[in-house]
Design brief:
Elements: H1 9-16, H2 19-46, H3 53-73, H4 77-101, E1 112-114, E2 117-119, H5 122-142, H6 148-165, H7 169-185, H8 190-210, H9 212-222, H10 230-242, H11 266-274, H12 276-299, H13 303-327, H14 345-362, H15 367-373, H16 376-382
Family: Belongs to the SEDS family. FtsW subfamily.
Keywords: Cell shape, Glycosyltransferase, Membrane, Peptidoglycan synthesis, Transferase, Transmembrane, Transmembrane helix
Membrane topology: Multi-pass membrane protein
């Protein structure tokens, strides 16, 4: 344990970090490995891979991901913004590259192979986008000479247009919803938020009309007889088979025929083996992380930190909600992972980066340090200089 009197970098980090938030994230990561032991082996066996292939790879991804999260949590708000800017620019560049040279999978070009590793760049753009949008909104409110709000508005189409071209409607909707939440939190009139909502509904209608696989998913959601509903029917069967207390670890049977049991539908596998009560516990854990983040955002005195924290936990919570709602047939299939639980390297590193930003921004900082980050002219006006 580090002493409060220590002025080392690690000592200051330990006494300023929110340990409840950190503990909840670590718990979620450990739970993800446990749940993956149920959903991973059957998929590996169907693909002719070693039984624990996905579990071993997830552990291999998790170690550097945790290191990335902890390293990012040491950053000051200023360096969080800089890291987000670099990540965003690189991520958008790789998304554009994937449109031309990436492999086509299920009608989309979302991935790019770099040094033998398949990367989904849109995952990394999400947390960076949230931080940049929060910074622009906060600067627009603080400095009348900077068109921060206008730039934040322009940032949205700059981000979602490449996503639509992939096409990746799920990520587009997620980014738009989080941006609208930031727009409203920044104090802008609800009339404009309603207008954004109308634009979102219009965009969804256009996606339904113009993108065949989006139409197919929506139609299967509304009418199971309109197409193949095997995946969602099997997922729902997992909940029925598991009941309240589950069959026990490794005892599930539906997972052997459930597609994407280790990624998009791992929540259903968890229900069969560990029961609905454990699934409720997972929901409570996600809710705790989101609510804890919002409480810390409310306590923070710096507008940028308040907005960025709000946006990051909103992104985290909505992504979790979408995945779990798909599993219980409350939304059409989206192909979105359950944070820190679903298998996937790009998702895991993206979440680690986003939660690293969150931990960094929620750390306790002296008021003098906050004032030191404000523009000198603003500080001068505050003291009558």
């Amino acid at each position: 344990m580090a002493s409060r009197a220590q002025r080392t970098l690690v000592g200051e980090w330990w006494w300023t970090v929110d340990r409840l938030l950190l503990a909840a994230l670590v718990t979620l990561m450990v739970a993800g490995l446990v749940f993956l032991m149920g959903g991973g082996p059957p998929v590996a066996e169907r693909l002719g891979l070693p039984t624990f292939h996905f579990i071993n790879r997830q552990v291999l991804y998790l170690v550097p991901a945790v290191a990335l999260m902890l390293a990012t949590s040491f950053l000051s708000p200023r360096y969080v913004r800089r890291a987000a800017l670099v990540t965003y620019l690189v991520g958008i560049g790789v998304i554009v590259a994937a449109l031309y040279i990436g492999p086509e999978v299920k009608g989309s070009r979302r991935w790019l192979s770099i040094a033998g590793i398949t990367v989904q760049p849109s995952e990394f753009v999400k947390p960076a986008f949230v931080v940049l949008a929060a910074w622009l909104f906060s600067e627009g409110a603080r400095r009348k000479d900077m068109p921060g709000t206008i730039l934040a508005v322009l940032l949205l189409p700059a981000t979602i247009v490449p996503l639509v071209l992939q096409p990746d409607i799920g990520q587009t909707m997620l980014v738009t919803i989080v941006w609208a939440a930031l727009f409203f939190t920044a104090g802008l009139h609800i009339f404009w938020v309603a207008g954004i909502g109308g634009a979102g509904v219009t965009g969804l209608f256009l996606a339904y009309e113009l993108i065949p696989h989006v139409r197919a998913r929506i139609e299967r959601f509304l009418d199971k007889d309109s197409g193949d509903s095997f995946q969602i029917d099997t997922a729902m069967e997992s909940f029925l088979q598991g009941g309240w207390f589950g069959k026990g670890p490794g005892e599930g049977t539906v997972k052997r025929i459930l597609p994407d049991a280790h990624t998009d539908f791992i929540f259903s596998v968890t229900a069969e083996e560990f029961g609905i009560i454990v699934c409720v516990g997972v929901v409570v854990l996600f809710a705790f992380i989101v609510l804890r983040g919002l409480i810390l955002a409310q306590r923070n005195e710096e507008p940028f930190c308040r907005l960025a924290i709000t946006g990051l936990v909103t992104l985290f919570g909505i992504q979790a909600c979408i995945n779990m709602m798909v599993n219980v047939h409350l939304l059409p299939a989206k192909g979105m992972t359950l944070p820190f639980i679903s298998y996937g390297g790009s998702s895991l590193f993206s979440l680690a980066l986003g939660m690293g930003f969150l931990i960094a921004l929620t750390r306790k900082r002296p008021r003098a340090e906050i004032l030191d980050r404000i523009a000198p002219a603003t500080v001068g006006r505050a003291y009558g200089a």
